[in-house]
Design goal:
Radius of gyration: 25 Å
Distance between the termini: 31 Å
Oligomer: single chain
Structural class: alpha+beta
Order of helices and strands: HHHEEEEEEEEEEEEEEHEEEEEHH
Strand order of the largest sheet: 6-12-9-10-11-8-7
C-alpha cells in the first residue's frame, strides 16, 4: 500500500511545479504537512459539534450517512489510555517526588509518550486484584508475569486488566491468563514485557469495575467543597483540578498503590498505578524522509528511522493536498497555487454541507 505522505507530496509537486516554477523542498513540505495535518485534526472537533447539533435537530442521517459515528472513529485514532506519573513542583520545575503526593503530571511526551490535546477522563482505580506482590521469575522476552504465590484465576484476573511495575511505573494489559495451563494459574501473559528482572513489585487493577471518574473542578470550587464533610471529595466521588502542567487529585490522602516507599533511595514506588487517564493526543508530526544521490532529485525513503506517515485516514488525502497547496502558494508567492488549493477546499466543504 502506497504511503499517504508520499502520494500527497507527489500530487502537490505535480500541481505546484508547473514549468519548473515553485519547487517545494522536502524540508518545506514537511513544515506545510505538519500544519495541514494539525488544521484538519482540529477541524474534526468543529465538525463533530456541528453534526451533533444536526443530530439533535433530527436532520442528520443514519447507517452509512451517520457522520457522527464516522467522526468518532477518526478521533478515536488519537485516543490514549495511560497511567499518570506523580510529580512535585520544585524551583518552578517538575521532578519525581520524594514524599507522598497527589499531584500528577498532565500527559506529556516525557511522561506518557504523547502530548494531550483534550483530557477526556481522569479515573481513580479502586479495585485491586493483586496488591504489593512481587514476580518470582524474569520472562520479559515472552511478556510473561510469573508469581508462584498467586493463583490469578481465583483472584479474578482477566484479559484487559492493568498490570503496573511499581519500580519503573511501566504498565501493560493482561492478554491471557492460561499461558502455562496448570492449576493453580500463576503465570499470565502481558501486552508488553515490563518485568526484565525478578523480585519486582507490582499491582494488578481491574479495568472492568472499581474505576471512579474524577470530577473536574476549579480551584475556587474545590476550596468550598473541602470546607464541608458532606461535599469533600472521597475515593468513591473523587475530583481533580488542573493547571497547565499538573493535575491535583482529591482527596489528597487517598491510599497509594504501594506504601513501602524507601525514602532513603528516593524510590517512588508508592506513586504509580492509581490515576488512569483517557485523553486525545496530538497527531504525530509527519516527516517525508528521503535519500539523495549526487545532485539528483531526493528519493523517498520509507525505511528511515525518523520516517512518519500522516496519521489521518486516506479519505483526507484531498484535504491534505489542498491545505499544503495553500501554504506552499503563500511561500512561493504564487497566487494561482494558493487560490487553487483554497477553491478546492471550499468546494469540498460545500459538498460536505459545512
Amino acid at each position: 500500500m502506497a504511503s499517504l505522505i508520499n502520494t500527497v507530496r507527489a500530487t502537490v509537486l505535480s500541481i505546484a511545479n508547473k514549468n519548473n516554477f515553485g519547487y517545494i523542498t522536502p524540508n518545506d513540505f514537511n513544515l506545510y504537512a505538519k500544519q495541514a495535518q494539525l488544521d484538519i485534526f482540529e477541524d474534526y472537533f468543529y465538525q463533530y459539534n456541528s453534526q451533533i447539533v444536526k443530530q439533535n435537530a433530527r436532520i442528520s442521517g443514519s447507517d452509512y450517512a451517520d457522520i457522527v459515528k464516522n467522526l468518532e472513529e477518526v478521533i478515536n485514532i488519537f485516543s490514549e489510555q495511560q497511567i499518570l506519573q506523580p510529580v512535585q513542583l520544585s524551583s518552578y520545575t517538575l521532578s519525581p517526588p520524594n514524599v507522598y503526593t497527589s499531584t500528577f503530571s498532565v500527559p506529556t511526551l516525557n511522561t506518557t509518550g504523547s502530548d494531550y490535546y483534550l483530557l477526556n477522563k481522569i479515573l481513580l482505580l479502586t479495585k485491586y486484584l493483586v496488591k504489593q506482590s512481587t514476580n518470582t521469575s524474569s520472562l520479559a522476552v515472552g511478556n510473561i508475569l510469573t508469581d508462584t504465590t498467586k493463583d490469578f484465576y481465583r483472584l479474578g484476573v482477566q484479559p484487559g486488566d492493568l498490570v503496573i511495575n511499581l519500580t519503573t511505573g511501566q504498565t501493560a494489559y493482561v492478554t491471557d491468563i492460561s499461558v502455562n495451563y496448570v492449576n493453580p494459574i500463576n503465570a499470565i501473559q502481558l501486552s508488553s514485557g515490563i518485568f526484565p528482572a525478578s523480585n519486582t513489585p507490582y499491582n494488578i487493577f481491574s479495568l472492568r469495575s472499581g474505576m471512579n471518574e474524577c470530577e473536574k473542578v476549579t480551584q475556587s470550587k474545590i476550596t468550598m467543597l473541602n470546607q464541608s464533610s458532606l461535599t469533600t471529595p472521597t475515593e468513591s466521588f473523587p475530583a481533580y483540578s488542573q493547571d497547565n502542567r499538573t493535575i491535583q487529585i482529591y482527596p489528597k490522602n487517598f491510599e497509594f498503590g504501594y506504601e513501602n516507599m524507601n525514602t532513603s533511595t528516593n524510590n517512588t514506588d508508592g506513586y504509580y498505578g492509581r490515576i488512569f487517564c483517557q485523553y486525545i493526543r496530538y497527531p504525530k508530526i509527519p516527516n517525508w524522509t528521503y535519500v539523495q544521490f549526487g545532485g539528483g532529485e531526493p528519493s523517498f525513503d520509507e525505511t528511515a528511522a525518523d520516517y512518519q506517515n500522516f496519521e489521518l485516514p486516506d479519505s483526507d488525502e484531498t484535504n491534505l493536498i489542498n491545505k499544503i497547496l495553500q501554504y506552499a502558494g503563500v511561500s512561493i508567492r504564487d497566487a494561482q497555487v494558493a487560490g487553487f488549493g483554497k477553491a478546492e477546499e471550499m468546494e469540498a466543504n460545500k459538498q460536505e454541507g459545512q
